[in-house]
Structure formats: C-alpha cells, structure tokens
Amino acid sequence: MIVVLKDNPDQKQLDNLIQWLESLNIDINISEGRDTTILGLIGDTSVVDIDLISALDIVEAVKRITEPYKNANRKFHPDDTVLDINGVKIGGGNFQLIAGPCSVESMEQVCSIAESVKGSGAGMLRGGAFKPRTSPYAFQGMRDKGIELLLEAKKVTGLPIVSEIMDFSQISLFGDVDLIQIGARNMQNFELLKELGKTNKPILLKRGLSSTLQELLMSAEYIMAGGNEQVILCERGIRTFETITRNTLDLSAIPLLKSMTHLPVIADPSHATGLSRLVKPMAMAAVAAGADGLLIEVHNDPANALCDGQQSLTPEEFADLADSVKHIRPYAYRSNR
Ligand code: PEP
Ligand code: MN
Questions:
Q1: pLDDT tens for residues 289-323?
Q2: Does 7 share its domain with 155?
Q3: Nearest atom (ligand 1) to Cα of 295
Q4: End-to-end CA, the chain
Q5: 270 CA distance to ligand 1 middle (Å)
C-alpha cells in the first residue's frame, strides 16, 4: 500500500500515523521527494483500513498494491483448491453438477428428483429447507422437516446434500448436511460468516444481488479467516436494468474469479435467468467459461412447484443439459494465469 502525503504534513499527525501503522506490524519506507512525501507500507496490509487513512488531513491519496483478501488470494496459493465433499471432489479439474428442487416439498418429491438427477450424472443434491423469500406470505420452506427429508434422500441415493442456512441458530440441524449454502441475501451477513468460519463444514457462498467480485472474495475471506478454508464461490446473477430475466448472469465473473482466487467457482443459471428455457444455454456458456460446477434447480412438476417453478427444469431437461455440458467440458476455458 502506498500513502501519498500532502505538502508540509503536520509532523505530529504524521508521527501518530506511523506509530499506528507500526502497532499493526507494518514496516514503513519513507520516500521524501522534492515536493511530495510517500510512505510505502510493507507487510500484511489486509489489516489496514484504507478509508481511515484516506480521511486523514495529511493524506493526499492512498493506493492498494495487493488485494485486501489474503487467504482467498491466488497470489498466495497458486494451486487450485480441491474440496472433498463427503467423497465428492470439486475444483482443480473436478467438475460437479449439483441439482435438485428449489425447496423440499415432500418425501416423494425430493427422493424422486434425487434419483433422477443422480441417474443423469449429478454429484450432489440441492434442496432448500429454509427459504429466503421476498414476501413474508410466500412459502417459507419446510424448515427442520425439510432437512429431515433431504437426509432421507441422501440415505437412499448416497448423494451429498446442499442446503441453505439463514441464521446460525439453525446450525444444529446442519450436522449431516454436507455443504452449507449461504444465499445471495446473506453474503454480507458478517456474523453468520464468522460463525461458519469457526466450523469445519464446506460452505457454498453465493454472490450477493449487487455485490462486486471483491466483496464476494472479502466474504469468503471472513469464513477463511476463522480457519475454515473450505469455500466454493457461486455466480448466481446480479441486478441490472434488464427486467426480462430475473438477474443477469455475469459470465466474466467465472474466469475473473478463477484468476483472483484458488477456490472452486460454480455458476447457478437457474437464479441467474429465472427462465427455464435459458438455463441450458447459460449452463453451457458457464462451463465453456471454466466453471467448476453448476447449481441447477430441477422439479418433477415445475408448474406446481411451491417455489421457483418457472426456472426449474424437469428431470428430462436436466438429463439433456448434463449431456450437453459433458460435450463442452473438454473445450472449457482454462486460464494459463
Ligand atoms: C437458492 O439457491 O435457492 C437461492 C435462494 O439462491 P440465491 O440466494 O442465489 O437467491
Ligand atoms: Mn430457488
């Protein structure tokens, strides 16, 4: 990090700044030019609040040279992270389809979808038990009963299961959930991120509706700073001015994230588009762009689904998607970083 000082900075304020930085274990290289003095900060500057420094009277400008995320940063971990989710690997060339209903509705529903997506090559089963709905009057999920039914589907199919946690008070229900999802609306629920950082559970972190990639990586950093390094990132579409699609799939996020971080990156074309007919083309595009996996909503009766039926594929449509994706995989983009 570089701090450019204003002309004739107040010596007392400068001493205070230097003392504060030294207390954070930062070494300082002072370069006095003819008109301008520049401080070069050396050490782990991820602990330095750039806004705090910018606000000082004696400071003209501050520039970060290294990113504020360290654990998630590819610079410090050049090799891809490979996660092992109860025997199913993702990342570092291991690709996974994660499929299932938006929300768990009944034993028959979740078990029949689980069997069919497994038959088409899905490596994990998704299913919401706690649903973050825009309206408080909409179906809120089956909650603890939903988790029980997912566990039953796991027993029957052997597929690891993925489900969303909305509050840390629910954690005791997630003991046998293999991959805990943090939804887009909770990406910056920092207390939840910190608590999950203390667990040893793999986490699927979805990008917030209006979040930058740096903000997504900082949220991953919250989890990793607590000691939990098992994080998968998910591009699930962002808010734009377009209204025909539910969100806009940010395809460039996939190769970009993969160059910025060593963590696996997957895409969710279901929530990104909101329209079932767009799920397959966007799934193919995401795979071509280098995604390590896909999160796809599948329902046995989309027209009568309690949640997100309009974007859900039938099991047959999912089988077709899985087949197309398999053919694209050998040509998928791999950056030479
Ligand atoms: C989901 O995956 O069911 C979900 C609610 O996704 P998001 O948080 O991306 O909206
Ligand atoms: Mn959904």
A1: 999 999 999 999 999 999 999 999 999 999 999 99
A2: no
A3: 2
A4: 23
A5: 9
